[in-house]
Structures are given as C-alpha cells and as structure tokens.
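Ticket #4471: structure export looks truncated?
Reporter: QA, pipeline team
Priority: medium

Steps to reproduce: submit the single chain below to the structure queue and open the exported record.
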Amino acid sequence: MELANETTVEEFILLGLGAGQQKRFLLLIFFTGLYVITLAENITIIMLVRVDAQLARLPMYILLSNFSWLEMCYVSATVPRMLFDLAFPYGIISFQTCFLQFYIFFSLGSTEAFFLSAMALDRYLAICQPLRYPQIMSPNSCYALVAACWVTGFLLYIVPVTLISKLSFCGPNVIDHFLCDPGPLLSLACPPHTNIPFVYQFAMNVLVILGNLFFVLLSYSTVIFTLMKSSSRESRRKASSTISFHLVVVTLFYGLTAGMYVNPSGQSQSETAKIITVFYTSVTPLLNPLIYCLRNDKVKEALGRLLKRKGRWPRRKVAT
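Actual output as written to the record:
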C-alpha cells in the first residue's frame, strides 16, 4: 500500500505537563535548575578529561567524556522546549520541527544504548582480557568506537521518521505530551494508513533495545564471573565498585525504557508516559555523572590535580 502524501496539518499543539499556572511556575524553576546543574556537571567531566593528561589517555574516560557530551545533547533536545511550554502553555510546534525533535530525541536514545554497550565492552576487555586491553582499546580504537556509536544511532531512525512523516495528518493536531513522541503522532494520522511505520518503529526499538541489553548483560555477567574467580581481594574490590556504578546507569536506562513498553492502558496512560519521559529526559542526565564520578578515585585525583595547579598559578602584583 502506498503511503499517503497529503499533509494538511502544518503544526501541532503540545499540551505539555498540563499543570495549573502556579504549578507551572514552580516546575519551570525546578526544571531550569536541573537543566543548568546537568549542563554544569557534564561540562566539568568533559573539561576534566580534556585537561588532565592521565585521564585523556584512558579509554574508559574517553568514553565517559563522550557520554557526557551525549547527555548534554539528550537533555537539550527536550528540556528547553518543555521549559518554553511551561512558560507559555499550549505551545505550537511546526510539523517539520516536531519530526526533527522526534528524530533527534530517538537517535540520541539509540546512541546512548550503543554507548552503554561500548562501556560494557571496555570493562569486559579491561577485566577479562587485561593483557590484550591496551592494544585492542587504544585511543584511536576508542575514538573509532565512539564514532560508530554516533553514526549508527543517527542512521537507524531515518527510515521510521520518514515513513511516519509521510502519513496523512488531516484531523486533530493536539499532542498530549511535552515532546513529539511517535505514539501520539501515529494516533493523529488519518485512516486509512499502512501499518508499516508502526511495525518498523517497533522492530527498530526491539533491535536496538534488546540487542544492546543482551550484549550489556552478557558482558557484565562475564566480568562478574571473572571477578568471582580472582584471587586478589583489592583488585576485585576496585573492579566491583566500578562495575556496580555502571550497572546502576544501565538499570536506570533500560528500566525506564521498559516502563514505556509495559505502560498500563487507560486514562492514566498519557500521564504515566509523561512521568517516565520526564524522569529519563531530565533526571537521569543529572544522576549519571554523579553515579559515574561520585566515588571514582581517578576523577577525584584529577580534580585535585587541577585545583592544585590553579592554586600554583602566580598572582598578579597590585601596583601601589
């Protein structure tokens, strides 16, 4: 069946979080604060890895700095628009901008899934293949892996976004969400229309989510099994501490993603979807840098070296 080409809807109306005026003001202040702190945290990690010679050579921190850059892009793809709609409710978004946000948001989500797999691979090689690790995960190999994550994440959603955008939208244009999500968009498409976009979207989500989740679970299971056999208690403790923080981030990401798919039906479905989406677009980008770096000895040491170096900078003499 050929997809409908005629699109009479030129803009959509985002209902946003749907709170009263006073609540919107409080939410505006709260999410603005979260957004600023999130950017500050991730910028700090990026700059720390760039200026510290020791961290800049380690694959784990090359991945971590790029992950921080991804988190900044991820939160900036949705939160500024959400803040705008809190300040000016029932915001209008053009057809093209809506689908651009849809594409960027889901591409960044896919890229994050690939990054979590890359970090799992890094930990597997570091702990299970320590002798081959420096050769396999050289800085050049690490940057190639980072580029592969970005390119693959942004290539996957070109087709589903294009297919959905070519459906006919000729009726209601109100989206009960604060971003352009494929679920509400597909519900606004005018019948009759093919199920190809929905099937392709579902297939891509299953491929990306389940494929990466299986790889992550396999990698960390092998790492945990290797650690259990290790005779060195100190090395086992350090490695276990690092792995536990990685697993917290993985659990947050895939737990919230699963929450979107086991969403209960009924009147509260859109509200549940909003709550889950708010959490993984605003809260997890704030938590992830803290989880990775809060008890990370190398990051603390690098921060100490940076502060000590600043303390040794010569002060200008004040002319009298």
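Status: closed, not a bug. The export was complete when the record was re-opened. Leaving a note from the reviewer for reference: The CA atoms of residues 1 and 195 lie 10 Å apart.
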